Amino acid sequence: MTDNVTYEADDGVSTIRLERPEKLNAMTTEMWTAVADGVRRADDDDARAVVLTGSGRAFCAGDDIGSLVAIESPRDARELADTVLECFDAIERSPVPVVAKANGSAYGGGFELLISADLTVAPRDTVFGLPETRIGAYPFYGAKRLARLVGRQRAADLALTGRELEAQVAVEWGLFARVVEEEALDDAVAEIVSTLKRSSPASLETTKAWLNASLRFAGEDEAMRNGLGYLFSGPDARKGARAFLENREPDFAE
């Protein structure tokens, strides 16, 4: 764990919390690794459920843009991709159901964390989006999952335009499990966790494995690494990241 990600095990439930509220829980490489470690630790602790949530007013604003500026080569980009993919892979392959409690809105990698979970619950007045193309990056996990989850046109509307998606629409499209009023969020997640704890661990593991099996295809991780490496071998990604940090629109025509 790091100071920005905490892990707590209590009564068969492991809670992983993003603890960087001053930065809207924007993810560093250390945080991606810590979340993956936490998910694996939950299995070692014989957890019956994992709850993934954030602190403060947002679930997660995505990757820390400063870390993207630091990427100087395709090799650096591939190393970042490996770290992020390891986290998503840990969530998908964990035998323990992962319940995401979206305590607030999420963008980029934060939104992708929510769609990687087995069950996601979000407050009604929250929005989500994948703005990566606006800064010269791409939502590599979202790009490989969204078309299978919501269909190609809806996936393109999210991933190519960066449009915001309301929680209610995310549920209607099948990206999230439930939408509730903000004051009911804790109770809704507690209800799900209680049900999981009463279920057969072996049955849950087998069911989860089959649910996720249809989402994967051979060679997908390597293709995603290559895509990120391609983007960061050119000027657009660094140009977009610097513009974001300087609070201005990037000019990709320069």
Structural key phrases:
single chain; 254 residues; alpha/beta; 2-enoyl-CoA Hydratase, Chain A, domain 1; 6-stranded mixed β-sheet; 4-stranded mixed β-sheet; 10 strands; 49% helix; globular
The low-pLDDT segments are: none
**CATH class (first level) name:** Alpha Beta
Please identify the structural class as seen in this structure.
alpha/beta
- The average pLDDT is 91
| CATH homology group | 2-enoyl-CoA Hydratase, Chain A, domain 1
CATH fold group: 2-enoyl-CoA Hydratase, Chain A, domain 1
What number of domains? 1
CATH architecture: Alpha-Beta Complex
Radius of gyration: 17 Å
Please tell me what the overall shape is.
Answer: globular
Portion in helices: 40-55%
Strand order of the largest sheet: 1-2-3-5-7-10
Strand content: 15-25%
Count up the helices.
Answer: 11
- For the termini, the CA-CA separation is 42 Å
- Biggest sheet character: 6 strands, mixed
Q: What is the tally of beta strands?
A: 10
Q: What is the element string, with H for helices and E for strands? A: EEHEEHHEEHEEHHEHEHHHH
Provide an overview of this structure.
With 254 residues, this protein is α/β, with parallel strands linked by helices. The protein has one domain (5-184): 2-enoyl-CoA Hydratase, Chain A, domain 1 (Alpha-Beta Complex), CATH 3.90.226.10. Helix content is 49%, strand content 16%. It is built from eleven helices and ten strands. The chain has helices spanning 29-44, 65-69, 74-93, 109-116, 140-150, 152-159, 167-173, 185-198, 201-213, 220-232, 236-245; strands at residues 5-10, 13-18, 49-54, 58-60, 98-101, 105-107, 119-123, 127-129, 165-166, 178-180. It has a six-stranded mixed β-sheet with strand order 1-2-3-5-7-10, sandwiched between helices. A four-stranded mixed β-sheet has the order 4-6-8-9. Helix 1 (29-44) runs parallel beside helix 3, helix 3 runs antiparallel to helix 10 (220-232) and helix 5 (140-150) packs antiparallel against helix 6 (152-159). The radius of gyration is 17 Å and the shape is globular.
